[in-house]
Amino acid sequence: MTEAIPGQPLAGYRVIDLSRVLSGPFLTQILGDLGADVIKVEADVGDTVRNQGDQVDGFSWYFAGFNRNKRSIVLDLKTPEGKAALEALIRTGDVLVDNFRPGVLARLGFGPERLEELRPGLITCAVTGFGADGPYRDRPAFDFIAQAMSGFMSPRGREAAPPLRSGLPISDLVTGMYGALGVTAALLRRERSPNASAGEHVDVSLTNSMISLLAYLASNYFASGRVTPRSGNDHPIAAPYGLFETADDPIAVAPNDDAFFGRLMDALDLPAMKSDPDFASNHLRVANRERLNRAVLDRLATAGAAHWIEKLNAAGVPCSRVNDVAGVFADPQVQSQEMALEIEHPAHGPMTVLGFPMKFREAPCEVRTHPPDLGEHTDEILAELGLSPKNP
After folding, report:
1. What is the dotted CATH code of the domain comprising 14-213+336-384?
2. Nearest-5° angle of CA 278, CA 281, CA 282?
């Protein structure tokens, strides 16, 4: 392990990041936020995300959002010199992450046997579209494909309309989180093993990650053989639960059981609804959703969103305004949680990135290093490895 940074959970571990675009870089940023020394290995053209999204002073803030707490080294892995530098780097590492298609890393000369020779006990993590084997292993995949194939899009949208994709690259993000969890678990296993070279290979795929999110849609299908139809903003198996118009703006309301239903009816001054036989159970409320929703909508139409949000929350009924992105970061709760961080880039000035969703009391995440320029740390890292600088 490398020299520890006091306090942070993964301090002292070195992660070699061969990934690009989003799933792998998000995975390794999580590890970096937790204290790991992450070295991002890039080709001379750089990660393609460097040229995507809105830029300030020629620097992509999309790239910045997924590559803080990393150092960047440029290596040409098709040359003997580049491969030799990567070999030297692997010898110092604890984790190697890639999101190549299956077999690419081996064709570059870094198959499992070679990696074991270079660094016994190395934890490797491969991010793929469909998994390490199976009939689709060699197919190209991006987030949209994983959303479509996994069934994730199936329940999204209205019943008579086409299924909808998530506007966010959800499969990349979920896969990155699973990968970070898998790597951390493998490091813990290695630490606990009497065998100091207890390595592990972690395989996470976009499609499997999305399938794992099917939740009650999968369990209902397993139990009944039926596919839950699309229901728009209404909850597929709970009512009244969804997006409701008020006198001005819509609000999200989420009473998910009998107790919350009772609180909602009391807050709306509709106490008779609690004893209506059509609404005596959640199953019946779903079956009679249209009449129930109409009664709720009629009552909510008598006042605006701010009134109902205050009243329903005071009654213990979960509800919220539907924020756009600007509204999110203007919200006082979000601001109190520091979910937008101002950081300083020495070459490009101040920039804003998303904050840390994990809040540690004793060992908090922190931004130790800015998102790097392409190859910013090449000479520094090569010198650490005892190799000649690329740009003497």
Report:
1. 3.40.50.10540
2. 105
Phi, psi dihedrals of residue 37, rounded to the nearest 5°? -85, 105
Residue 245 has pLDDT above 90, yes or no: yes
Domain extents for the chain? 14-213+336-384, 251-321
Residues 306, 364: Cα–Cα separation, whole Å: 35
**Which is catalytic among the residues 76, 172, 298, 379?**
172
**Residue 108 CB-density burial (10 A; 0-12 exposed, 13-18 middle, 19+ buried):** middle
**Residue in the structure block whose two tokens are 């979000």:** 334
- Two structure tokens written together for 58: 């020629």
Q: Cis ω on the peptide bond leading into residue 240 (within 30° of 0)? A: yes
* CATH 3.30.565.10 holds for 251-321: no
pTM for this one? 0.93
Per-residue pLDDT reduced to its tens digit, 64-119: 999 999 999 999 999 999 999 999 999 999 999 999 999 999 999 999 999 999 99
Known active-site residue 172: yes
213: left (phi over 0), alpha (psi -120 to 50) or beta: alpha
Instruction: Determine the Cα–Cα distance for residues 311 and 163; give it in Å rounded to an integer.
Output: 34
Would you say residue 3 has pLDDT above 60? no
